[in-house]
Amino acid sequence: MTVTLDAAANAAANAAVNAPASAPANAPVIAAAAAPAASAEPTLVIDGAVKRYPNGAVAVRGVTIEVGQGELVVFVGPSGCGKSTLLRMVAGLEDITEGEIRIAGRRVNEVEPAERDIAMVFQNYALYPHMTVRQNLAYGLKNRGTDKAEIARKVAEAAAMLQIEDFLDRKPSQLSGGQRQRVAMGRCIVRDPSLFLFDEPLSNLDARLRTQMRLEIRKLQRRLKVSAIYVTHDQVEAMTLADRIVVLNGGQVEQVGAPSEVYARPASTFVAAFIGAPAMNLIPAELAGGALRIGAEAVPFAAPPAGMAPGFVTLGLRPEKARVVPQAERAGGLPFTLDAVEELGASRLLHGRAAGADVVTAADAALPIPQGPLALHADPADLHFFDAVTGTRL
Ligand SMILES: Nc1ncnc2c1ncn2[C@@H]1O[C@H](COP(=O)(O)OP(=O)(O)O)[C@@H](O)[C@H]1O
Ligand SMILES: [Mg+2]
What we know:
alpha+beta, binds magnesium ion
């Protein structure tokens, strides 16, 4: 189950962040006037952040992350790992138990949400139902005392960018889910914030629209060059959107890196199992005397990674790096029993067992399904090794 705010709480949060009741005394009305500084100062620094809720629950356990200028960082992890809490701490919707949050070099721990120069898109959009799209877009600016001509110009610009010009006079109830999502984004764009925050913004959309909107968000963020944090439990969304991924687990950072790095070199079995679909195969094994023992099989292991001590390990192998071939065709490998075949169109998954472990492999669907006694093969360079106890990459 995804932990989400109820609609009323979400609306209140939206009002605090995106549509403050009045302009903060010392904030510039149009943030766009302040061009991004030439320095490499990160837009956001989260420094040793801890969140302990009043009931004693610790949702965030010492997180340190930077978001560079124009960078899109995705927080990804299973439900309950602290993604929303961390995002809400950045937004100012939750106070910070320990640590510091800095936006453009300024400590904001004590700064009101409306004064943080951020804009946030929520899962349920949090649009005002009684207002038209145009009014929804204009509301935050109007409250800040922006002049009419400027509001009209910004609303028109955002509407064109999001292709919602034809719906400006409709109410949210007369829009599809995807159109509402665009309006919610438009409301953020008109404010020219220095940081966009997205909390699972596509979760309410069907699969097809989610894929389309994901791409649109990416293009828009690139075009606006605005820094952004995007929270999702969906690893595909994380991989496709992010400049950098932050994998969270139990309120802590498991790994930070570019999607390709996190995929190629997961820092732990947790990350290995979470990033990539189907998940990486994780197989108990023992490294002894230059051989890798898997179940009852001793597989001669040509090139043990330098410095790896003998002992128990968890072996990782991506399904797409594993090959199942008839034993008659190629010697060696692990005997493999094929249990089920899953057709995915361009590829197919072969589910089976090797040396007592469940193993899934992915193969080109154009190739014939291998028959007869089978064996599992992998290039030694494609094997990942993790500590059998801690799960840490070796
Ligand atoms: N207001 C709250 N009071 C107490 N615990 C909370 C509160 N909000 C969230 N939590 C707990 O904090 C943890 C992280 O929650 P959350 O940040 O919503 O996770 P995520 O967004 O990753 O699903 C969960 O264990 C959740 O139950
Ligand atoms: Mg959440």
